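#struct-queue
[09:14] JT: dropping the first one here, sequence first, then the structure tokens:
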Amino acid sequence: MNYDTIEEAYHFVNGARFGERRALLHRPNGKIYYTSTVADYGELPADVETSGDYLAIPHKKDLDLGKELVSDFIQEHCPQQLNRILALFERKDAYRHFKDLLTGMGLIESWYLYEDAREREELQNWCREHNLGLD
């Protein structure tokens, strides 16, 4: 299985709110089926619900890449701001406020690189956990 194919499907799933898009890997042939509940996009095979041959590509929420990821980043890059930033996540639009704060601190690019690396690491771990041999 090609990792880039899995990563592309992962980005499709994460390109919308949690649960709005799905990507399912058919293990025997490596084909990925895409569907969206919002855009009425894609058709799934008839046996997708009854066969054990399909594996849902995770959303980043499935990989637990939320508040813990933010906390890890802050502890590495600006630990003195930890309480202030964690408090943001108790309000509405927390992620937007977090990114605005990082922009003001000159850390937004570092955040995107950190987030991308951790997502890649966790997605590769997910692949190993599901015995997907990667190229």
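[09:21] JT: and here's the second one, same format:
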Amino acid sequence: MRVAEGRGRFARTIVPMRSPLETLKSQAQAARKASRTLAASTTDARNGALIALAASLEDRQGEVLAANKKDLAAAKRSGLDEHVVERMSLNAQRIAGIAQSVRDVALLPDPVGEIIEYRLLPNGLRLERRRVPLGVIGVIYESRPNVTVDIAALCLKSGNACILRGGKEAFETNSKLARIAQEAIAESGLPAGAVQFVASTDRSLVGDMLQMKDEIDLMIPRGGAELVRMVAREAKMPAITGGVGVCHTYVDAAADLANALSIVHNAKTSRPTVCNALDTVIVHSAIAERFLPMLAQAFAASGVEMRCDRRSLSVLGAGAVEGSKGKRVRNATTTAVGAPVIKLAAPGDFGQEFLSLVASIAVVDSLDDALDFIARHGSGHSEAIVTEDIAAAERFLNEVDAAAVFANASTRFNDGGEFALGAEVAISTNKFHARGPMGLREITSYKWVIRGDGQIRK
């Protein structure tokens, strides 16, 4: 509604400010319109926009870092957890990595228009099943600014529009990255409306997004268990409601212990704040006396707190318990760097996604016990076995019910980039429609295309 104020040449028109909800609805409509243009666009046009986006990220690195600096200062003032601050922190190297991931997406085969299946029916009808974009994808996420670019790039490549709602802790950074993406897309001749960013931290808008089933075709939450549960409970459209990572590594009786130590240490410490980081180490009792002291030494050097069941605590000995600073782990063959921090685990420490330098430790007597333990406490994300026993490895890979299962490798590889998907919109622990890292094909659907010569059904 426009309201005229004053008279004659002094009159002016006052346009009332839109409410955040009205703005969101307008953005959803713009995304829907853009999605139709994207679906009909060429591979070259979409790839060109991606290359332009990668270059713009590098050229405007200073702007991004300045925005990120504001977010980090606010995060520290508000006392945010260390793992949240780490996830939202950017530097020149991380921005270069984000730009490279966009280029990697551009190099991937275009899924749009792919003929999945072709049939010639006895009546002469020619059927093909053709891959098409989903339409508009909504993403609600926390902490990690790279998600803004990853989602925008994957959606653009696959012909989808997206509506992004990032967390308030990285609002300045996400706003800047989304603006860069919109401008690069527009300069490449595609609709800037393909990437929409919810420029409000009003939490009620999350609930509003979840009701917009006519505007949003798929909803993806990227965050903690509370967010995932809320989306599962309230979303009116299909949603990816898995993704919480409770990740185990089982060190079998037949494990190469040096290999096991390297894998476990990498899975826990290379980036402890992400969903594919190790949470629980399960150790076979036959090698616990040798392996656990080695692990305690390595974890102590990296500042990892160990929360042990009674069996693993008894192996490490009283001298390893927190509070005994300066004492060596029993049976250790090398000097620890710093005192191990070892506690008796609480019941909730098994089945817990720590997202920090904390790991729970359990001792079992068999592969069967390890499988049962994972079935009870796992979230279906990433599970690993370390063993030289091929039969044990194959049984683990076949029987563990998870999106990704590993033999003699770190769970940290469960990642869209590492799986040669370019990037990922999420890691799904759902079993339908997508599981594991969701790349381009996982954010497409298909339609049947039928060509005839006048056939009618009798």
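[09:30] RK: nice, looked through the second one.
[09:31] RK: The chain has 14 helices and 18 strands.
[09:31] JT: good to know. Residues 321-337 have pLDDT under 50 and may be disordered.
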